[in-house]
Design goal:
Largest sheet: 5 strands, antiparallel
Strand content: 15-25%
Helix content: 40-55%
Number of helices: 10
Shape: globular
Distance between the termini: 35 Å
Radius of gyration: 24 Å
Order of helices and strands: EEHEEHEEHEEHHHEEEHEHHEH
Number of strands: 13
């Protein structure tokens, strides 16, 4: 089954400036070859693609694409298939086919590990990850962490850990943390209030502050749930927040420097490009999951209607 990501796509830029864009799954060696072939290329974060200027850009990109797919990538797949045949990964979570299929219970660790494997992609129809053989060695390197996380994510293992936690101090702390997060509030220094018109980075991830209530934060909540505040001087007040959407994060201008110690102590700061990319990926994944959920609900309601 062909992947929407397991290919290099080339299309006109669609802007006043002549050029074309190219998108492909991240692979360090492939990016290096691309940058060598197109030294004027610039990454466009809003399009998740490389922009190559010039009236002949699309034609040059097409030629490069043919060389990559017919040559280097095909050879890498053949070499990876031979490596798997010689020393395969034997696991209930992996099945070889035209590519390597990984099916596991959900785990953030697994998702993070597989996203770091070049050319890996999520097959939403089959509900599994597909990894081309060219990425076998990187998958093998990460497999111990993936398999361990998969075993811990099995329903029976999750239930066993929950049963062990019940009544413990750790269980109470986790429940208190979850209740605090559901309140959608965050402490900010009364003397350094955050702007409320754009996404900011915080110790709770990317947030948009919607309102500063002015209510003083009690010491117990501050120390229990927001230990980072110990390095700040002054009174904290509660601010309401929401998660920014993907489009908002794309429009957010990144900071040139990482957050300073003072920024971290006050609890919010302008995100760097690395923080923005991570936040954009999470927001895009959440929005896709919400769209899928709405679609399933609509299909379910249509099926329940009498004929």
């Amino acid at each position: 089954m062909p992947s929407p990501r397991d290919s290099i796509t080339v299309e006109p830029a669609g802007e006043d400036r002549a050029g074309a864009t190219a998108s492909f799954p991240f692979d360090a060696a492939l990016v290096e070859r691309f940058r060598t072939a197109f030294p004027r290329a610039r990454w466009r974060d809003d399009r998740h693609a490389w922009f190559v200027p010039g009236s002949t850009a699309e034609r040059r990109l097409d030629r490069w694409l043919q060389r990559e797919l017919s040559g280097v990538l095909a050879h890498a797949d053949a070499r990876g298939r031979d490596a798997f045949a010689f020393d395969p990964i034997v696991s209930d979570y992996l099945a070889p086919a035209e590519d390597l299929m990984v099916r596991t219970p959900y785990s953030r660790t697994i998702v993070s590990e597989l996203r770091a494997v070049p050319w890996a992609w999520w097959d939403g129809e089959e509900r599994l990850w597909r990894i081309p053989y060219r990425s076998f060695e990187e998958l093998r390197r990460r497999w111990p962490a993936i398999e361990e996380a998969a075993r811990r994510a099995e329903p029976a293992e999750r239930k066993r850990r929950r049963d062990e936690l019940k009544g413990s101090a750790e269980h109470h702390a986790l429940r208190a943390k979850a209740r605090e997060r559901q309140r959608h509030r965050y402490p900010v220094l009364a003397s350094q209030l955050p702007p409320g018109d754009r996404p900011l980075m915080s110790h709770a991830g990317a947030l948009v502050f919607t309102e500063v209530t002015g209510e003083l934060v009690d010491d117990e909540s501050l120390h229990q749930h927001y230990p980072w505040s110990a390095g700040a001087t002054g009174d904290f007040v509660w601010a309401s927040w929401r998660r920014p959407g993907h489009d908002e994060l794309v429009r957010t201008w990144p900071a040139r420097q990482p957050a300073s110690g003072a920024d971290l102590a006050r609890g919010w700061w302008q995100p760097t490009i690395e923080e923005l990319r991570d936040a954009r990926r999470k927001a895009r994944s959440l929005e896709r999951a919400q769209a899928t959920r709405r679609q399933r609900q609509m299909q379910g309601s249509q099926e329940e209607k009498p004929v």
